[in-house]
Amino acid sequence: MSRKEMQFAEFVGLMAMMLSLTALAIDAMLPALPVIGNDLGVLEPNDNQLIISTLFLGLAIGQLFYGPLSDNIGRKPAVYLGLSIFGIGCLFSLFATNFELMLVGRCLQGVGLSGPRVVCVAIIRDLYSGDRMAQVMSFIMSVFIAVPALAPAIGQGILFIADWRVIFTFLLVLGLIAFAWFSMRQKETLSKENRIPFSFSNLRKAAVEVFTTRRTVCYTLAAGFISSAFVGFLNSSQQIFQIQFNLAERFPLYFAMVAASVGLASFVNGRLVLRLGMQTMVKWASFCIVTISIVFYLLIQFILPEPSLFVFMIYLLSTVFFVGILFGNLNSLAMEPLGHIAGLGAAVVGSMSTFISVPFGTFIGMQYDETVGPLVLGFLCFGGLSALAIYVAEINDKRVVV
Fold first, then answer.
1. CATH code, domain with 280
2. Counts for the chain of helices (H) and strands (E), in that order
3. I need a surface site. Which of 1, 289, 316, 327 has the fewest CB within 10 A?
4. Is pLDDT above 80 for 211?
């Protein structure tokens, strides 16, 4: 293999690792939620879900700033800052003696992880464009998609041999490896003459433009609503699989099936989107989510109040597949009118959709009552809201008054 090929492969591997840290920090924790809650004195099992929700809150906060910050101080310092905050958050959680300290650590982890999550995409955009950028992203996503499928198994494997705190040690070590690898091998991709001073005024102007562009607002709302349902699933998945269906240590296997469904959606979307268009894809995907959820909700209300695991998995895999189609397109649709402020626009859009998903996703998860009803109702209601936002986005008027 030539030196050039080695460099490209290494770059893809590094970027995939940096972007995968977020999925790993979320999904590796799922099998450990009840153990952590028990050790830290949590009385209500549903409250354990906050260990997931607070990380999403940190992501929402951090996404707003890392893009503009990296435009000002450079890509590498911004990533250093993010990974450092992530490490501090891991230490908070690792040594937490109460639930409140655990949640502070998780929020800090989210704030930190939004750094590499945002800046690595900017680095790829600095180095590549057009079809070459699409190729790089596809290689990275092929690695990234595997992480959610494997992460719960990693967490469960650690629990077999060690205390839950070792999961945070594992995350901390991965963060240190990523920091060292990135610092030694990745060159700065933003020259000093191309840097833009950080300005809250520019951020405010970008926010105003985002909030006054109908298509951007509506597609961002659609992304936030469907993400709410998915976050609700993440929050309650451990209780549904391990407790309700009594899967215990087999939970990671079934979670991997769900992650594979999202991966399949990405593949199918890549094949069909150029032929059908993003608008058509999101309309049909949202319609299917609502229709499937209506049918399944009526089924569990009037015919099969306690569905088998097999029946539930058929519903979940089909629904999550169409959620994956929406994930693949809604952000791109929201960003289409913002090409002239792409960096700032992406920061506002990403932060806004995550801020929407955190409270609503937490609410859905907290409704868990030892049945799958609240989750199905969450996909139905928030899938419906997403479908409504997609419909409104297509109304001819491009701007709204705020």
1. 1.20.1250.20
2. 15, 0
3. 1
4. yes
